[in-house]
Predict the 3D structure of the following.
Amino acid sequence: MALFLPETGTCGQGETASVGRSYLPVNPGNYSAGRTRRAARNRAAAWQMFGPDRRVTRRSVLKEGHPVKRTALSLLLLASLAPLVAPAQADENPWQIRARVIGVLPDEGADLSAGTTALPGDVEIGDQYVPELDITYFFNENIAAELILGVTPHDVKATGAEVPGAFGPADVDLGDVWLLPPTLTLQYHFRNDSQFTPYVGAGVNATFFFNEDEGDVADSIDYDSSFGPALQVGFDYDMDGEEGGWLLNVDVKKVWINTDVTVDLSTALGPTLGTSEVLVDADVDINPLIVGIGFGYKY
């Protein structure tokens, strides 16, 4: 025999009250009136939560995919992962910054020409020592990306240059030029149990020339921008033996820089050659070795 529960929570044999479309069959021989009233209140609450067109039973709540079960499982999963995620977010900062003094040591060479005629001679570019800043981002404890920023001024001279019919082998002062050579490398850091961490890297360099001073002989000089590869090797030494903090750094890079240079010598050579314009082109390899030492801080 079925006992239907009234909406008010009271019950009686033969009375009928629906809760939405849900109903609770009760065997009077097995359930007390108090338990029946509690069941009615639970059914009414479920009706308010899930709507009048949804039948909610103990089986439907536990059934795979039910919103209640999905929510409970999600909360349990988040609670179990929280102890693992929180320490990584709190303790591991991926940024590192270094300040170094670097020596930029060009391994220069050039091919000179006037129009289609090759000219004898070479080029000499002076060494330079300047401060440099680099910023490193760690994707994990081994893989990082480093960007170096700095500018270097260099004196430039043509050596053994000769223009037939104008002047014989001579050195020509071509003034100086500033280089902005941002270099981005991808690094691998060899982590170990010591305070010494070596690394290697490879990447790309872009070099931009500015503030060209043509010197006393040329009318003007123009340098094209350069793009080339870069290789790197170095090490960090943790100064306090703890994660993060101050470190000593030694770094060596080989950067391939090639630029096309145009030197206007019209005033100096034009009258001798009987022409109004004299342009000398140079395909110049600078290819410096960059050696640096400095200090850094790992956040």
Summary: Residues 1-24, 60-66, 81-90 have pLDDT under 50 and may be disordered. The CA atoms of residues 116 and 281 lie 10 Å apart. The radius of gyration is 39 Å. The helical segments are 33-50, 58-62, 67-91, 266-273.
